[in-house]
Design brief:
There is one protein chain. This protein is an alpha/beta fold and 387 residues long. The chain folds into two domains: 4-209 and 372-386, Glycogen Phosphorylase B (Rossmann fold); 224-369, Rossmann fold, CATH 3.40.50. Helix content is 42%, strand content 16%. It is built from 14 helices and 15 strands. The strands form three sheets. The chain has a seven-stranded parallel β-sheet with strand order 3-2-1-6-7-8-9, with helices on both faces. Helix 5 runs parallel beside helix 6 (165-178). The mean pLDDT is 92.
Length: 387
């Protein structure tokens, strides 16, 4: 006789990105899968290299891989219509009752179409609607549109027009997948507003899942320690952090402030240590040693996973983006301007008075507490039931 848990519908989680590479979307995806499984929900993961996820309670299915799309480093899985039989068979075999997708390409489009055909809810988590590419690449916009149409089979729908042609094509790509889902999930409120304004349909602000709380005592001795963790991509603006440190050292001298950078290659910047690529456990250790984490992106990020990690460790974030600052409330300290000068000014104030971090630390813990696994899963299942 099947167990009560086995009789419950499973959740199928879908992603077009390889789970061997842990970017922000993959990290959010994996943590959500683990949270669902940890709360007793049967989880089936359909994604390239899904077997990299070995958590208990999770069944993995890896679609055949035909190559990789250059530049994007996106696994090439074929067209959506070719993937639909695999999606349908997976749903039937495992008794899937809802589909949650975290990407905008072929397997995501296939999952939405099959879910509609079988009458089960589909929820699309958008990790960034704020795609940004250099304006010099704008002539490639038609190529991006054609590739996306070819992969997904989606040939009509809303169109984003608020930026240069390539950005418009990238955001239209996300919008057209989002339009087809029953619910669009935005980890941030500000992105939810942007998606609604673009015509995405039913959009719910729904945070990514936070790690279990691991609050460490706040450092008390000098130097003031800061941590920068992100992809080394132009939109993350690591140079703003490095230029700010140069200004801080010029004004305070060495030894008052130290910045740890997880990732990247060493550069001769005073007061900065580059740790190169580090595993998640080491990031946690660096977070415990820090007073705060830096997020220097501007106009790009939705809900950076590093913010949730910082909050779970009881660390506030210092953000350059004024919109992102309001997203996190008192758990974030916004810089007076989004440039290196503004960041340096705030760092110098904090170095002079560490007590300014006390209230943001408390707010960080409160923010994470409301987004841990149990609360996240309960809300997700409510949304599924509402369709």
């Amino acid at each position: 006789m099947p167990s009560e848990n086995a009789a419950r519908p499973a959740v199928l989680m879908v992603c077009d990105y390889s789970l061997k590479y842990l970017g922000g979307a993959q990290t959010a995806f994996i943590r959500q899968a683990q949270a669902l499984a940890g709360e007793g929900v049967r989880v089936v993961v359909l994604a390239p290299d899904a077997d990299a996820l070995t958590s208990d309670g999770i069944t993995t299915v890896s679609p055949p891989r035909r190559g990789t799309i250059p530049v994007l480093d996106l696994p090439l899985l074929g067209r959506a219509r070719d993937l639909e039989p695999l999606v349908a068979a997976t749903i039937r075999r495992h008794g899937v009752g809802a589909v949650v997708l975290h990407s905008e390409f072929a397997v995501a489009a296939a999952a939405i179409d099959v879910a509609r055909q079988l009458g089960i809810p589909s929820l699309h988590t958008v990790h960034t609607f704020f795609w940004r590419a250099p304006a010099a690449l704008a002539p490639f916009a038609p190529v991006v549109s054609r590739v996306h149409r070819s992969l997904t089979g989606i040939r009509n729908g809303g169109r984003f027009t608020g930026s240069h042609p390539l950005n418009n094509s990238l955001r239209t790509m996300t919008l057209r997948v989002a339009e087809r889902a029953d619910i669009v999930l935005s980890p941030s409120k500000h992105q939810a507003v942007a998606l609604r304004d673009a015509g995405a349909g039913r959009v719910e602000a729904f945070s990514n899942v936070a790690q279990p709380l691991r609050v460490a005592p706040a450092p008390e001795d000098e130097p003031l320690r800061l941590l920068w963790v992100a992809r080394f991509a132009p939109e993350k603006r690591v140079d703003v952090a490095l230029d700010a440190m140069r200004l801080v050292v010029e004004r305070l001298g060495e030894g008052r402030v130290h910045l740890d950078v997880a990732g990247g290659t060493h550069r001769p910047v005073p007061g900065v240590t580059f740790h190169g690529s580090v595993p998640g456990e080491r990031v946690g250790e660096l977070m415990d040693a820090a007073d705060a984490a830096l997020i220097t992106s501007l106009g790009f990020d939705n809900q950076p996973m590093v913010a949730l990690e910082a909050f779970a460790h009881g660390r506030p974030v210092i953000v350059s983006d004024p919109v992102l600052a309001t997203e996190f409330g008192d758990a974030a300290l916004g810089t007076p301007s989004p440039d290196a000068e503004g960041l340096a000014d705030l760092i110098i104030r904090l170095a002079a008075d560490r007590a300014l971090l006390a209230a943001p630390r408390e707010a960080a813990v409160a923010y994470a507490s409301e987004r841990v696994a149990a609360a996240h899963v309960a809300r997700l299942l409510e949304l599924v039931a509402s369709v």
